[in-house]
Write a structure and sequence with these properties.
This protein has about 550 residues and is α+β, with helices and mostly antiparallel strands. About 15% of the residues lie in helices and about 45% in strands. The protein folds into 2 domains: about 90 residues; about 450 residues, Porin. It has a 16-stranded antiparallel beta barrel. The two termini are about 60 Å apart.
Length: about 550
């Protein structure tokens, strides 16, 4: 700016001088003319000298201005860098403030406190977790009686412990519990005895360079749908209140050893060896079967409740899963292999027998509208897979010759979650599990699961006990919302409500058509049981 002012001053000075010279009157004589010319020449030389000095000053000032400009640019860049460092430090401090440090590891607390209510149109005798297979047919008196309960048992506590051995190697341990354990002494009469329940307890080791991830302990089964990748704590469950997930959702929480490999956090391949258990359906005529089972389950021993039984298994369930996160959505496909184990006599000689089962499944998670509307879909098909579905249909039944017979089943779940704003989520889900009959006849003896010779004639008559009612299909539609009415430095508090309609339909069997007893064709007399449920939940997340 100063250089421009000097240039203007120089130009103005030169102009004034030029006018002065031009305005000087003509000399009267040659001597005067010579003297005047000499004076003018001296003045011009003096002006030139002044001009050179001023020009040198301008150059000096321009150099100073350029240098100052460089300093200003450098200073601005430095300030911007410092600002970024401060912002990163603030973010790190804020992130670190959510953790507790102890002996070099960081501890992150989590969980929520819940106060919830349950209404059911038919009594199940269940707390916050519904029992879909126990929905009563009309012959049961409690099918005509409503159920209301209040519960805080879904309250949850968790702790994540993390330590970095090196920039490449990370170790962690995670524990999560709720209060849905129900010992034999547990009741709601006065001061209940509901006990804590282990949901997840596991350790992990992650190696960034090799992309390997190890998990050991109890966690969600590898076949459970993930929202992204294949790492723990990214499992995507339906956002409902009911502690038993929607029929069609494939999952389990069990002990396992899992190894996962990722390629640039985009493609994932994992294998998991998981704790096996088998759920059985024993025919009401099983005692008349030609070959009797000697052993397929056992009374619970040390470490288990003596009122329970355990299946006999000697090979873990094996699950292999591939997942991809290509940039839009999450996609996965998996397979599971299972072994069922029993012992019976063949030609008078007792022998152990293995029967194989398993299946495959897939899952998709898509952000239909980014950060606004999410869609998820998952499904599974196979034989002997009932324990991995929320409806808990039986895995297997028994054939007349003593073999374990896996029951074929398929499961489907789909749902939308609308993030209306930062405070409100609304969801709509539907799911279904469907079994195929696995029936046998030994002479006139009906065996297996879903046999059309079973007597279902009393399923719709109150007080009648003639109802086998093997479930062929269980489906549910549910809708609900969560409203986060407080989010701030003291955590989060929210309220939710959920309505669901569930229907259980049995295989057709012997029944009444227009008052006439006889075999049922085309499923016209298949008994149905329905359940309307309404839940509310207040939850406080302090961490």
């Amino acid at each position: 700016m100063r250089s421009k002012l000097l240039a203007v001053a120089i130009a103005a000075g030169l102009g004034v001088t030029s006018i002065h010279v031009m305005a000087d009157p003509a000399p009267a004589s040659s001597s005067k003319t010579s003297t005047s010319q000499s004076t003018q020449a001296a003045e011009i030389e003096a002006l030139k000298a002044q001009l050179q000095a001023l020009q040198a000053k301008v150059v000096e000032l321009e150099q100073r201005t350029d240098a100052q400009s460089d300093i200003n640019v450098s200073t601005g860049q430095a300030v911007e860098t410092v600002q970024k460092q401060v912002a990163a430090t603030d973010a790190q401090v804020k992130k670190s403030s959510d953790k507790l440090s102890y002996k070099g590891v960081n501890i992150t607390l989590g969980g929520f406190l819940a106060a919830e209510s349950i209404y059911r149109s038919a009594q199940e005798g269940a707390d916050i977790a519904s029992n879909y297979s126990a929905i009563p047919y009309k012959n049961v008196q409690t099918a005509h009686m409503n159920e209301f309960r209040m519960s805080a048992r879904q309250s949850r506590l968790s702790a994540l412990v993390q330590g970095d051995v090196s920039p490449d190697t990370h170790l962690a341990g995670y524990i999560e519990m709720d209060f849905l354990g129900g010992a034999q002494t547990a009741n709601s009469n006065e001061s209940n005895s509901f006990n804590p329940r282990m949901r997840n307890v596991y350790m992990t080791a992650d190696w960034d360079t090799s992309g390997l991830h190890l998990l050991a302990g109890q966690n969600w089964s590898l076949l459970t749908l993930n929202s992204k990748g294949m790492l723990p704590r990214s499992e995507l469950t339906p956002p409902q209140i009911d502690a038993q997930y929607i029929p069609g959702f494939t999952w389990a929480r069990q002990d396992q050893i899992r190894l996962v490999k990722d390629w640039d956090k985009t493609y994932w391949l994992g294998i998991s060896l998981e704790n096996p258990q088998t759920t059985f359906y024993s025919s009401p005529n099983q005692s008349k079967a030609p070959v009797q089972q000697t052993a397929y389950n056992i009374g619970a021993g040390s470490g288990f409740d003596s009122a329970n039984t355990l299946s006999l298994n000697h090979i873990p369930d094996v699950i292999v899963k591939f997942a991809a996160d290509p940039g839009f959505g999450h996609y996965e496909v998996f397979g599971v292999g299972r072994a069922f184990y029993n012992r019976y006599a063949v030609n008078g000689s007792y022998q152990n027998h293995d029967t194989w089962g398993g299946g495959w499944g897939l899952g998709v998670v898509l952000p239909l509208i980014d950060k606004t509307l999410d869609w998820q879909f998952s499904g599974m098909d196979g034989k002997g897979i009932g324990r991995y579905g929320s409806a808990q249909l039986a895995d297997v039944t028994f054939s007349p010759n003593g073999n374990i017979a896996p029951i074929k089943e398929n499961m489907l779940l789909t749902g939308l979650t609308w993030h209306a704003n930062s405070d409100v989520d609304v969801y709509l889900f539907g799911g279904r599990e469907q079994a195929s009959k696995k029936d046998f006849n030994a002479g006139t003896t009906a065996l297996g699961y879903g046999n059309p010779a079973y007597n279902n004639s009393g399923c719709d008559i109150a007080g009648n006990t003639n109802c086998v009612g093997n479930a062929r299909e269980i489906w549910q539609g549910t809708a609900g919302f969560w409203w986060k009415f407080y989010q701030g430095k003291f955590g989060k508090m929210q309220f939710g409500a959920q309505y669901s309609y569930t229907q259980k339909e049995a295989f057709p069997g012997q029944g009444f058509i227009n008052g006439v007893s006889g075999p049922v064709a085309n499923g016209l007399a298949s008994p149905k049981a329905t359940e309307n449920m309404f839940f509310t939940s207040f939850r406080y997340y302090p961490f």
